[in-house]
Structures are given as C-alpha cells and as structure tokens.
Amino acid sequence: MRKKVIVGNWKMNHCRNEASEFVSGIKDEVKIAKSHNILIGIAPTYMSLDVVSKKKPAGLILSAQNVNEHASGAYTGEVSISMLSEVKGLTHIIIGHSERRQYYGETNERCNAKMLAMQEANLTPIYCVGETLEQFEANLTKKVIKEQVVTGLANLSAEFVSKMIIAYEPVWSIGTGKNASKEIAQDICCFIRKEISKLYGKRVANKVIIQYGGSVKPNNVKDYLTQPDIDGALVGGASLKASTFIELISNLY
C-alpha cells in the first residue's frame, strides 16, 4: 500500500528565522501524521535548508526546490547535486516545476538530465508535470503529459523510478485559486500511472507516488486524496503558515 505524501513547496518565501519557527511549529504533527501512514515534507529555499536540516524532526522529508544537472562549472547562481548532498537529511529535489518551465525555459530534456544526475547520487525527484490553460482548453492535456513523462523519465532505471514522486500540477491552477476537479485530477493521475506501466511495468507503476498540486487547501485536500491514484499533494500557499499546513494535514485523519 502506497503512503500518502504531503510536501510544502515554499517557493521564494521564508527567511531563516521564519523557517526555524515553522519547523518547530509542525514537529508534533509530523509524528501524528506518520501514525496515520502520512509522510510530510517541506521544500525551503536554498538559504534555509541548513536551518531546517538542524531542526527537523525524524520523519520530516527535506527537499530542495531545484538543482543543476552539472557536477560543477561556470554556472553562476546555480547549485549542484554534490552541494545539496552536504545538507544532512536532504533526500528529495523538486524537478520541472511549472514556474521553472515557464520563467526559466526548463525543458523535459533538461529535467531528464537532472534526474539522471540525481540517480547517480541516490536522491529522489519530485517530478512535476502539467498542462497550460491553452493546452487544457485544446484537449491536449494527455498528449502534453505523456511527452513530459516519456522524455523526463528516459533512461532512468526501474528501481529509481519506483521510488520517485510525480506531481501533476495543471499550470492553470497554480497560484490562481482555480483547481482541477477531483475527477479531472484522478483521471490524469491514473493516466500517468498507466504511462509508467507501459514504460516500466505494473510493479513499478503501482509503487510510484503520484501527487496532485494546484490550489490545494485544507477544505479540498481530502477530496483529492480519497481518489485511488492520488497519493498526496504538492502544496504551495497553504504550506506557508504552520497552522494552515497542520489544518490541511489533519483534515486527512
């Protein structure tokens, strides 16, 4: 049985003192959630990773928001896998978030290069896929997501894929207050699982954690996570306050 996994993506929010206070505020909830077979994670900015690392309770997933695919070199402003590997307890990295794709031109091929490098370092991707509003209205959702899955996962081992998280985040719902219905989210998450099954077989597909992300809030999270192919949520705004994040998680009990 797959665990439920809730990860808060802070994006460009929270300085170090705020990050420290947040972790202190959710310590008890991490233990309670684990007793309900729910794992909690947070993805702070690079600047706060060490603060969270030092204060995080056992069981809290620590993720970075991005990484460069190169081991080192003349890539001003970038961070390598070896640098992130020095952060104690960091196990996950978000790859291909729609904001990275939209604002920084990140492609499926580049996402693939990053995950191939992560495979060598034994770090787990949270790989984001999703369509724009124009693609959604043109009924291109499944075509777009198939390409993101096939190209993004190219040449990754079955064992590595079985441990990763894929987050379906329709671009038109991120930060807009709009959200895909639970039926749409389930349909697409099921589609993703079937595509993985075609690539790697049912055993791998049944192990992959598939999250929904896009205006997930305390009042709708349970609707999504009661769907058979939705194993968790990648949460943005609702993860910025400890109280709201706790409310969201506790609504699943």
In words, what does this structure look like?
The protein has helices at residues 16-35, 49-55, 81-85, 98-104, 108-121, 133-137, 141-152, 158-163, 182-200, 202-207, 221-225, 242-250, and strands at 4-9, 38-43, 61-64, 90-95, 124-129, 165-168, 209-212, 232-235. The chain has 253 residues and is an alpha/beta fold. It has an eight-stranded parallel barrel, surrounded by five helices. β7, α11 and β8 form a beta-alpha-beta unit. α1 packs parallel to α12 (242-250) and α5 runs parallel beside α7. It is globular, with a radius of gyration of 17 Å. The protein starts with a strand and ends with a helix. The mean pLDDT is 96.
Task: Name a few traits of the molecule.
45% helix, single chain, 12 helices, globular, 253 residues, 8 strands, alpha/beta
Helix content: 40-55%
Shape: globular
Q: What strand line-up does the widest sheet have? A: 1-2-3-4-5-6-7-8
Strand content: 15-25%
- Main sheet, how many strands, which sense, barrel? 8 strands, parallel, barrel
Q: Which blocks of ≥5 consecutive residues have pLDDT under 50?
A: none
Structural class, please?
Answer: alpha/beta
The count of β-strands is 8
Give me the number of helical elements.
12
Mean pLDDT: 96
- Give the termini distance in whole angstroms: 17 Å
Gyration radius (Cα, Å) is: 17 Å
Tell me the series of helices and strands, N- to C-terminal.
Answer: EHEHEHEHHEHHHEHHEHEH
